[in-house]
Amino acid sequence: TEDIAKRILDYGFYAPTIYFPLVVNGALMIEPTETESKDSLDKFVEVMNQIHDEALNKPEKLKNAPSNTPIGRLDAVNAARKPILHD
Length: 87
Known about the structure:
Shape: globular
Protein name: Glycine dehydrogenase C-terminal domain-containing protein
CATH superfamily: Aspartate Aminotransferase, domain 1
GO molecular function, one term: glycine dehydrogenase (decarboxylating) activity
Pfam family, one: GcvP2_C
Keywords: Pyridoxal phosphate
Organism: marine sediment metagenome
CATH class: Alpha Beta
Order of helices and strands: HEEHHH
């Protein structure tokens, strides 16, 4: 789930809320706004299909995502335990 959310960033979309609701294993909560165009939603569907294909054929792309953002994948556990709250 986290790998998919991080890979979505590489395609220029915001990562969805993950693991919510908690009663659904591996949930992704996709919430497009009312102002999203049909073209934008169609592009998102294309991206999700591409990510599905990558998960089956090139899983390392998901494990290493994001790769097209200024900052790569953060160590979430370390960031939560040792936050840096200043510049």
